[in-house]
């Protein structure tokens, strides 16, 4: 591990100033589960490490029935996994956090860090995108907002500028008759990257029709993929076995997987079909509960 400068800013503006003026390249430190491993393996060699743990408000974990959930950049996946709030109102995100890495890593890894890692197989991204989550980003010009769905631009690439910091995640409060599900398929649920992941967010209307629907696929494209054609086939209709199967098939056809050591492209497409059908069925059951 090479020599690097180290800072502990006390405010966001100070942290941004350090990103702009300090030695480059700089890396932010929150959970450190990716950064420390990559530094030891010399995959990343930052000249400056900026610890954001002393910045007020970065550990926010606040729920309001009207405004929804606010997660600061220091909130860990373990906090999300075990919180009664997320387990009740954001079940897909809680399940994604549960399936994430090992228990030791979940105690340190942050949800924002997983988002900024921008891995195509990231567990938290599909659930956040399906829920319409929005990121608060602080930079030299102040604060801006970006949907999680627009944030990732490629494997390991995001819209974040070198002098910007993701400070919070906002997730709207769930409406009545809403169901949220995340399903992960791999050789094992934890300590394993997803071979395929599917998140579904369903809201039923007064007549039992699908009023709102999001289906997001992981590990089958360079970024998490919204299955728009599958959604369109169900939205506005009362769900039937035939429509659910058609939606699952459409999602499979929309996927753009590659083959690797975890599965062939054909296998991944088939698992998208299977998991999408299961996720929709479970989300509909939750919406009716």
Can you walk me through this structure?
There is one protein chain. By secondary structure, the chain is an alpha+beta fold. Helix content is 36%, strand content 25%. It is built from twelve helices and 14 strands. A hairpin with a 3-residue loop joins strand 4 (61-64) and strand 5 (68-72). The protein is globular, with a radius of gyration of 19 Å. The N and C termini lie far apart (53 Å). The model has no long low-confidence stretch (mean pLDDT 96).
Structural class: alpha+beta
Distance between the termini: 53 Å
Q: What share of the residues lie within helices?
A: 25-40%
Overall morphology? globular
Please state the CA-atom Rg, rounded to the nearest Å: 19 Å
What's the average pLDDT?
Answer: 96
Q: What composes the largest sheet? A: 5 strands, antiparallel
Strand line-up across the major sheet: 4-5-10-6-7
Q: Which strand-content bin applies to the residues?
A: 15-25%
Count of strand segments = 14
Order of helices and strands: EHEHEEEHHHHHHEEHEEEEEEEHHH
**Low-confidence segments, ≥5 residues, pLDDT <50?**
none
**Count of DSSP-assigned helices:** 12
């Amino acid at each position: 591990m090479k020599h690097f400068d180290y800072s502990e800013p006390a405010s966001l503006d100070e942290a941004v100033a350090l990103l702009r003026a300090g030695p480059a390249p700089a890396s932010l430190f929150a959970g450190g589960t990716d950064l420390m491993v990559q530094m030891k393996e010399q995959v990343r060699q930052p000249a400056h490490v900026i610890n954001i743990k002393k910045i007020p408000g970065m550990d926010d974990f606040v729920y309001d029935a009207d405004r929804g959930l606010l997660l600061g950049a220091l909130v860990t996946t373990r906090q999300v996994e075990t919180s009664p709030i997320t387990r009740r109102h954001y079940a897909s995100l809680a399940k994604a956090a549960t399936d994430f890495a090992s228990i030791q890593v979940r105690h340190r890894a942050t949800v924002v860090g997983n988002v900024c890692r921008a891995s195509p197989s990231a567990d938290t991204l599909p659930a956040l995108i399906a829920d319409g989550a929005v990121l608060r980003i602080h930079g030299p010009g102040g604060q801006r907002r970006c949907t999680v769905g627009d944030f990732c631009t490629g494997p390991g690439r995001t819209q974040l500028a070198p002098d910007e910091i993701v400070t919070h995640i906002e997730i709207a409060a769930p409406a009545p008759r809403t169901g949220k599900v995340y399903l992960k398929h791999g050789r094992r649920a934890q300590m394993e990257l997803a071979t395929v992941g599917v998140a579904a967010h369903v809201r039923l209307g007064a007549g039992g029709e699908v009023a709102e629907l999001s289906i997001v696929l992981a590990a089958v494209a360079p970024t998490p993929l919204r299955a728009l054609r599958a959604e369109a086939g169900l939205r506005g209709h009362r769900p039937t076995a035939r429509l659910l199967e058609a939606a699952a098939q459409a999602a499979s056809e929309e996927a753009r997987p590659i083959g690797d050591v975890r599965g062939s492209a054909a296998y991944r497409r088939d698992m998208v079909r299977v998991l999408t059908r299961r996720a929709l069925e479970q989300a509909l059951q939750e919406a009716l509960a």
